[in-house]
């Protein structure tokens, strides 16, 4: 109960602050520009569900212009970008334990040193405080490489980029066209292949990883694209292929949904976002999917798409409408959960009934009931279920735990005690007990009859009764 | 007729009677006052606070009763106890204590006396001790006379064996149960003496009150049948016995079944079968007596006896058969442990782990009863001299209770009243004999004329006032000269066994009298001093608040428990679940008002074993258990800094044993000892010990406290390693002033899905080993 309500309050407060900020900015706008601004304002309303301030950390070697399509696209969608280099102390990402930005883009894969506010630890802290991260790595060993391990991503040794000799093309072996899976929940529909160059990573088993782009099956990580001198490959080949970074199970772009709701996306090569790759025609001469892919990845990372939340849950006795603070065993109880989905185009939370396969558990230590929680027909965003409370008293929890790749996690826990019937809720008369009732009644009747006979009948010997009394 | 000293002769019998009864009332009032006052040490030394562990639950339940009414209390389901199982409180407690306080509370409030419910609870036990003194007086009066009754009342009023369970603040079932025990016994004796169904019914009603108040009612349930059975065996079956027993058993059993916690036990469990069996036997015997009165044929009577015995055997076999069939529950483990003292240790560590279930040490008999324990056998022997029905009762009571008191420390409580009664009988006999002014004639008297009340007649209540006499003595005292010869004879024979025809013996000189009397009074005086000393020093500590002495002699209060519990209350959400060993469950619920996993109502062994397992496993194993039970805080008691020996490390082996009982594959007791079999916490401790959650929580950051010096655990007297244990899955949340209570917060799962040890290592900047992709294919060999 408290879990969802706290989250909801936070969201309400955030919403309210957001509104206030919008009102503030629109108040500053002079009236004659107001109309023209209005169109912009609709677009400028936060696209993300968590805020629109973005800090971009760029390598000193690269400039904004290299990624102008990507960044302009973000700005057009309403994000406020702030740029700095890794070594700048200001603006800091986190001050007084408070994250200063809603999202951080780390496009500094070559930097070996950062100013003190960006460390692997502080990035994890940011993430746990619901700041989203978009992190690019490169074949170079940087502090970020060690951070990747915390996300269950296994990077190859330094200096081993992804290499693929197929399909035949005129680009270097490290610049690879990668087919995009059409069914990925993060991406919008099917995209043309994207250009990629950088490192792949293997996944440890971690359920929070959302693979977005996988390596082509023929590709592998090697320290040289020539046949000779590729030590990593040779070494792995000696071991029968063990430990080789190769094949389609490698990831190139992977999202990470944390338990707290923050999102991080790891990209094997920053060039994926560059203008150069966005314009480089694919092998069949078409426009590559890079631009759209980058926009989709950013939208997912910045919590525009695939964002769900629990608006609230209630429970009540089947014949009532208000929740009770306890239920009796074998009661019939209705549980209702309301879910909203964030709509980035209108920047509104809208009731969402599209979830399939959500389950409700009624748990005390172990789930006593686990059953599908179906959308209520006719009421958008509402999922409800009526069930019989088990014949077992204790402190139960209504538990909804919906975790799907690409979607934010839905969790709702409501604690409710289930009690045995009150002393006056048991049946008053039991039919199996009739022998006992009959016994009690017949004994009472016999006693009465005996008394009556004793008092009325025995008048023949008054003396004797007197004498017994005096005894 | 010579007298040792002169008595006033000009008093009218009525004056003597009135004066003596006034004196008795005054004496009883003073005894009540002393009984109450001596129990107030705890309030004066500390404050009006509920003591120990169980009283905290009783207090909490009473508050519910007082604020929400009886029916809400009856149906109270406590979701915060035994989380998440919950506890059906109404059906699992003896409500007598709470109901008593509730009634007193509503009466006082009805009189517009707004007394706080806490003060009622604190003062209930002293108040009832006064009633206990009165009921003991009544009981002993049935045994001997009023003077013995007054002595018994004085004894029970201040004897430490009873005070230990009834000081102010010790708000436990025993507080009222001893009163009920003695009063039920008194009514039973009264019913047996008079053969009155009225007193039998009264006994049944108080038996019901007792059943509603204390689990120890089984003692009455078995004592009265045992008494009745013994009387039958002694050939003392009478219609008085039949009426008394039948009315007590029928009404008492029906009434006791109205208590939800007892329910159908009186007809379903072995503990109650003796009462049922004796009831049946009485019916058979009564029927046989009836038939015998109407039938004259000797052979028919023989046949009848055969059939009676056959029916008895059949009835016994039926009970055995029903037990085998499972209709009658066999003896419970707690009961077995009364016969086989090693039973609990082997099979039910939970029972054995309670200190008050340990066998009694010899010194505690002296500590609790002082001189009474020496006079006690004399009183029992004096009972043999007369051996009326009620004396048989006291003898049985003495034998049974002595055995039980030897088996379990806590059953000292049931022995104490019996000891007081017997000691009072013995002591008053001595006083009677030596105060009695009548000196024997030199000539042998042969008149054995006086009736049965001889002893009481001659002795009188001289101990209370010179020359004043009791009910029967009123004839004797003023007319002392004519000669209560029988009284003399029996008195003398009570002390020195005389043989007729020999030269008469007796007490002639005043010096002899004085020597014995002064000696006896001195003993009584030392008894009072001992009681006061033991009460003030040993039995008046609330154990919630500890006291120590400063170097300058002033008292230093150690209030760590309440400090920690109030910290929990003020700083954690109301739904935060606190895990601790079960000893502290009631206190946490009462003082911190937070849900607990286990508490002193040890009804679920598995749940306790779960907590034991969590405490005795490593962090990695314990963490899923903690998460499964929604534990937010873990509380441990640590005495190593202060030298408080009742801490969790000393109880730790019981946790291990109880957990081992349920998970023998995962927890093994020998792993917690060193290779030499020692229980150590220092460098030499075994690895399992060092990795256990309990060890880590107790000694976390303990070494830092000594600033580089050698850290010493003052309870175990062992030197702790310089580098203490580290915690990955818990955070230290609170440690009380003297480190007695330490509270740890259970960390939430890592947002990145790592295990918390890894997350912690990362947080501290440790590099992790590089890993390689998992091989998906196996090389073909």
From TrEMBL, chain A:
Membrane-related topology note: Single-pass type I membrane protein
Q: Which InterPro entries match?
A: DDOST_48_kDa_subunit, OST48_MD, OST48_N
The pathway is: Protein modification; protein glycosylation
Which keywords does UniProt give here? Endoplasmic reticulum, Membrane, Transmembrane, Transmembrane helix
OST48 N-terminal domain segment(s): 54-301
Q: What is the top-level taxon of the source organism?
A: Eukaryota
Q: List residues of the OST48 middle domain.
A: 315-456
Where exactly are the transmembrane stretches of this chain?
A: 434-456
Subunit composition and interactions:
Component of the oligosaccharyltransferase (OST) complex.
The record's family statement is: Belongs to the DDOST 48 kDa subunit family.
Purpose: Subunit of the oligosaccharyl transferase (OST) complex that catalyzes the initial transfer of a defined glycan (Glc(3)Man(9)GlcNAc(2) in eukaryotes) from the lipid carrier dolichol-pyrophosphate to an asparagine residue within an Asn-X-Ser/Thr consensus motif in nascent polypeptide chains, the first step in protein N-glycosylation. N-glycosylation occurs cotranslationally and the complex associates with the Sec61 complex at the channel-forming translocon complex that mediates protein translocation across the endoplasmic reticulum (ER).
Q: What is this protein called?
A: Dolichyl-diphosphooligosaccharide--protein glycosyltransferase subunit WBP1
From TrEMBL, chain B:
The domain of life for this entry's organism is: Eukaryota
Q: What GO terms are given for molecular function? A: transferase activity
The enzyme's first-digit EC class, named in words, is transferase
Q: What is its main location?
A: membrane
Any matching Pfam family? STT3-PglB_core
Spell out the residue ranges making up region: Disordered.
446-482
Its name, as the record gives it, is: dolichyl-diphosphooligosaccharide--protein glycotransferase
Q: Where is the STT3/PglB/AglB core domain?
A: 577-627
What does the record give as the reaction this protein catalyses? a di-trans,poly-cis-dolichyl diphosphooligosaccharide + L-asparaginyl-[protein] = N(4)-(oligosaccharide-(1->4)-N-acetyl-beta-D-glucosaminyl-(1->4)-N-acetyl-beta-D-glucosaminyl)-L-asparaginyl-[protein] + a di-trans,poly-cis-dolichyl diphosphate + H(+)
Q: Which residues form the Oligosaccharyl transferase STT3 N-terminal domain?
A: 23-422
Keywords for the protein's UniProt record, in alphabetical order: Glycosyltransferase, Magnesium, Manganese, Membrane, Metal-binding, Transferase, Transmembrane, Transmembrane helix
The transmembrane residues are 21-44, 88-108, 120-140, 146-163, 175-191, 197-220, 241-261, 273-291, 303-324, 365-384, 391-413
Compositional bias segments (type: Low complexity): 450-480
For whether the record's keyword set contains DNA-binding, the answer is: no
Q: Does the keyword Magnesium apply?
A: yes
Where does the protein end up? Endomembrane system
| Cofactors (names) | Mg(2+); Mn(2+)
**Family membership noted in the UniProt record:** Belongs to the STT3 family.
